[in-house]
Amino acid sequence: MSRARRKTQTQRVQVAIISAERKSLQTRLAALDRGSGIREQGQLTGNNTPTSDTLDTVQEAMAKEEALAAREVLIRRLRVLARAEERIREGTYGLCEACGEAIAPARLQTLPEAVLCLRCAEREEQRAVRSR
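and the corresponding structure tokens:
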């Protein structure tokens, strides 16, 4: 099989993997959105002592905060997967955005949205650690 044909076939597999992951994330996001607004303040159950009201309010606030954080993670992941699909259409998928070298197929298999080769990703991580 020619190299170009293998590359095209590999990209089709990656498109399928990315598409499946995006659908899964969209399903999880929809479920999270449905579940996060179910209980509104004032509809809480339990005893009516002042302490229980305060605890219920705190628990509700914590649950909403966790749901918002989880939602943000899902949305961020959806964006990077959309960018990976865009790179496939542009013909730049699998090339490092920093150095232009090919990203190892094993890395793309594990992390289909990778935009940096391992060497550049490690450099980026070291920079981030130093800047903290």
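(Above: one complete record from the training split.) The chain has two domains: 3-93, 95-132.
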